[in-house]
Amino acid sequence: MSLNIKRLIVAALSFLFLGALLLVAYQESKRHRVETGLEPVITATNSGCVKCHQTDAPALVKDWESSRHAQLGVGCVDCHQAEKGDIDGWTHEGVLISALVTPKDCARCHTKQHQEFAKSHHAKAGEILASLDNILAERVAGMPGNMADAVNGCWQCHGSIIKFKRDDKGQILRVGKDSKPVIDPDTWPNSGMGRLNPDGSKGSCHACHSRHGFHAYVARSPENCGKCHMGPDHPQIEIYNESKHGIAFYANRDKMALSKPGDWILGRDYYAAPTCATCHISGHMTPQGINTGNNHDVGERISWTLRPVVSTKINRITYDDGYKEDYPDTRQLPKIGAKVDTTEHVVENEALVKKTVNRTVKSILTWQERRTNMKGVCLNCHNDTYVDNFYKQFDSLVTLYNEKFAIPAQDFMNKLTADKVLNPAAPFEHEVQWVFWELWHHEGRRARHGASMMGPDYTHWHGMYEVSKHFYQKFMPEVIKAAATKGPAMKQKYEKLVNEHLARPEHVWQKGLKPEEAEALRRSYEERYK
Amino acid sequence: MKSEPQTHWQPALMARIKSMLPIDWEIIRHMGAEPIPYHLKKWWFCLGGTILYLFIVQIATGIALTFYYVPTPQEAYASIVAITQEVRFGWYIRSLHKWSGNLMIVAVMLHMLRVFFTAAYRHPRQLNWCVGFLLLGTTMTFGFTGYSLVYEQLSFWGATVATNLAEAVPLIGPWIAFFLRGGPEVGENTLTRFFVLHIGVLPTVAFILVAIHIFLVRLHGVTELNFDGETVPEGKRHFQFWPDHATTEILIGVLLMYLLTILALVFPAGLGEPANVNETPLHIKPEWYFYFNFRLLKLTSLKLSVVLTMAIGAIAFFWPFIEEWFMRRWRVSDRLPVTLGVLAFLLFLMLTVWEAFA
Fold first, then answer.
1. Angle between helices B90-117 and B126-149 (to 10 degrees)
2. Amino acid B5: pLDDT
3. B106, B118, B349 ranked by CB distance to A6: nearest
4. Which of A128, A148, A230, B209 has the fewest C-beta atoms lying within 10 Å of its C-beta?
5. CB A391 within 8 Å of CB A370
């Protein structure tokens, strides 16, 4: 073989080598762009959707392109695909899809998270639909044929029952060339935490993991929870913002590693402050150097319930099918293996119904164990004396509220009902019912939540101060006023009961301070404002 | 400009220096006047010098980087971040080091292609082929150990895979793996060992091999190539190393520096996620020059891929002797080695591209 031919071979191979290197460089830079989130992976299945929707809804597509889903090639069809027979499904551009993405859909990949969430208190948020809160929105604020307050208010946090428009025969109305089912606009759009979906699942992952970016930093940010955990009846975000935890978070946001992919572990990945997710969901390090991992059941670390009229510590029963139920510590605990009738709310024919299901007790998580779980988070930054003393302060506030105000007020309400002054079927007929409602549902919760999350102003001025003022100045007088509607005898009876109650040592301050207390007060004001 | 008249002190100074360095300057001049075959006037025949130039760049930039690099698992990544973001011109030096290393491997491969297809490894130059092949191995080990020092996710896990490969070498594998890792698994000691290899052992080995390589080239002289149809007058068949060839090499060096600077500016060395021993990344990839091996590993098994690589390496190393024996025994034309070479290189390219797209 002549040297010239060999020279040509070397030249050809060199060019091929250069070409191969350029191909490798191109592919590697593309992979790098994909892995660093600069470029989404658009699979063949999703390319059709992206092609149209990047013009129809460009921001939506761009939001998705910025997501971890897009980096991993999880796209439109992967989440929106429907199964044959799904009542919310329709064939769109040749693919059977649904507008609704339910926790069941997300569970195709996020199985563990779904299992934890599905049994949690969050998933039951939609069961409020049979509560006083809902009556206030649907009936008190609403009017026949218009439940706009419930639709725009309560359900946007608690979740709606997704319903469809139907014809006279009860068949779902479908429109357009794709026969798209018509969802009742009162029930969707809805991203409520406990949304009741047509596939039987409860909840909406989108409530915390906002679509279509699904960024971890959103779910980890306190503002995310603040959409619902705020306002007069449960101002957790406001309390957090005034607490040392909130102050530390906002001052150190850039040190929080909020965007860290994968686990987000207190004591390993960040240290500067806790957010809502830190204490209630995310993992943390233990003194043994173990990562506890996260848990989408938000109740696993909560030892008090601060929601009802009277707070109780709560034990958790887990049944053999995974169903969970909270038992107040005042209620006898069943034995492991015992068969227990449980009440579950399910949707049947687009309505919430109660069902009694006999289940076997599998395990019990006591309130003390729940508290130990929470203390595990606290101990990442505080020592055990600090944490124990905090819980003593918190417990004492809840006990104070319970014993001085909640239990007596509830007792008066029970008596009025027993005397047929109050009609249980008319929960907001008398002024006293409104005052009582706000006493525990608004002011009492603010005080308890304030103490639970170290918000001093919410504990006192927005909380116990309002509870006390309204207990003495509104509730007690309204008890007598309501009784008076049943005649003078009933009025006299309740005047006597109220006076007897206010004669208790914790209420005698009304008759005047002791001389030395009054003198100290006078001197203090003289000193402060002279 | 009019030249200055030579003053009397210059010859005196030169004489003084010469007396301090009692060297036979005639021999130096004679060595510099080494006749170089005319084909080396073309730059693509100067790849050996290109490699040497890039090696010098690696030494210079490598020493500069060593001033700031901290070879401990806790500090390594942070020191690279500091070099890239804080140290003045740190990013430039690091990018030069990275690109020069990559270009060096490209140049080594091109140099080998030229040597192979022009059959410059044949008798009496068989030994220099073997030394050259060892230099290829040294260069690739340089690349591998250097990449691991970055201590980012990919380089850390790349090192893990590579030491697993080493472990699969028959008989001595576990020992080599233990030696490289400094323990049963990639850990604290591994980084230190790779550092010592990268800045101490490998440069020493490379210096010795380069010296032998150049020495052998000088002893044998550069292979003379006679292209068909080219008639070169006898007086022009050779030119002098100094200053003619040296000028070509300097020119190539300047152009290489220009190319390296452009690459460093346009594609500066980046940084991935820091190494996390608890989290295996989605895609583990070595540097491109190990892709063929990585693909081979995926296509076969750990053991088989290692045995295959070793077999291919052994054949390549002993190729001049194998070919000689083959040709003597079967009297085949030199089409066979050329065809084999083309196929082998195409296979290498195919596996490399395949791995990139996998």
1. 150
2. 55
3. B118
4. A148
5. no
Task: Mention every residue, 6+ apart, whose C-beta is less than 8 A from residue A218.
Answer: A208, A209, A210, A224
Question: Which alpha helices (H) appear in chain B, and where do they start and end?
Answer: 9-20, 25-32, 47-66, 76-85, 90-117, 126-149, 153-167, 173-181, 188-196, 202-220, 246-266, 291-299, 302-317, 319-330, 335-357
Token pair of B207 as six digits: 């210096």
Q: Which candidate, B35, B265, B287, B12, places its Cα nearest to that of B148? A: B287
pLDDT of res. B270: 86
Cis peptide before A185 (omega within 30 of 0): no
Using an 8 Å CB-CB cutoff, list chain B residues near A20.
Answer: 349, 352-353
pLDDT value at residue B285? 82
Kindly report the backbone phi and psi dihedral angles of residue A328, in degrees, each rounded to the nearest multiple of 5, phi listed first: -60, 150
Nearest one of A434, A405, A465, A458 to A229, comparing CA atoms = A458
Q: Which of A6, A31, A35 lies at the smallest CB-CB distance from B338? A: A6
**Complex ipTM, two decimals?**
0.80
Beta pairing, strands A174-175 & A180-181: antiparallel
Quick: pLDDT tens for A303-340: 999 999 999 999 999 999 999 999 999 999 999 999 99
**Distance between CA A212 and CA A69 in Å, rounded?**
9
pLDDT in tens, A481-511: 999 999 999 999 999 999 999 999 999 998 8
Q: How confident is the model at residue A134 (pLDDT cuts 50, 70, 90)?
A: confident
Domains along chain B with CATH numbers? 37-223+238-357 (1.20.810.10)
Residue A382 DSSP SS3: coil
Residues of chain A contacting B110 with CB distance shorter than 8 Å: 14, 17
Among B227, B209, B224, which residue's Cα sits nearest to residue B108?
B209
Q: Residues near B124 by Cβ (< 8 Å), separated by ≥ 6?
A: B220
- pLDDT given for residue A37 in this prediction: 67
Using the Cβ of A13 and the Cβ atoms of chain B, whether some distance falls under 8 Å is answered with: yes
Low-confidence ranges of chain B (pLDDT < 50): 1
Neighbours of A180 (CB within 10 A): 18
Looking at A288-440, list the stretches that DSSP marks H as alpha helix, in order from N- to C-terminal side.
Answer: 367-378, 384-400, 407-418, 431-438
